[in-house]
Design goal:
alpha+beta; four-stranded antiparallel sheet; 6 strands; 34% strand; globular
Length: 105
C-alpha cells in the first residue's frame, strides 16, 4: 500500500453555505482525479472531520473540472453570522482536508 497526502495531487477551496461547509477538492490532472474518485469518499471525509462535522457529508462529482465537492452539514455552529467558532465560514476546511492521507492499493 502506498500513502499520499491529498495536497500532492490536488488543491482546494472551501466556504460556508449557512450551517454547512462547502469543500471543493480539485485534482491537478486526470490521474489525480481517478485517485480522488476512488478513494476520497463521503465516509472518509466525515471521519476526517470527526468532532467538527456533526451532520451528514454529501459528495458531488464534477469530472469535467476533475473535482469533487463535499457538503458538510451541521459543521459551522449555525453559520457565519451567529457562530462562535473561530472559522465560522469554513475557510480553512479545504486546507485541513488536503492534509488527509489516503492509502492506495
Amino acid at each position: 500500500m502506498k500513502k499520499i497526502k491529498l495536497i500532492e495531487i490536488a488543491h482546494g477551496r472551501s466556504g460556508d453555505k449557512g450551517d454547512a461547509a462547502n469543500v471543493g477538492i480539485i485534482a491537478y490532472n486526470d490521474e489525480g482525479y481517478k485517485i480522488l474518485s476512488k478513494y476520497l469518499t463521503a465516509e472518509r471525509v466525515k471521519k476526517h472531520f470527526e468532532g467538527i462535522c456533526l451532520g451528514k457529508v454529501e459528495r458531488f462529482e464534477l469530472p469535467n473540472l476533475r473535482a469533487l465537492n463535499f457538503l458538510l452539514h451541521n459543521t459551522l455552529g449555525g453559520g457565519g453570522t451567529v457562530s462562535l467558532k473561530h472559522d465560522a465560514q469554513g475557510k480553512t476546511l479545504a486546507a485541513a482536508l488536503l492534509r488527509m492521507e489516503i492509502e492506495m492499493e
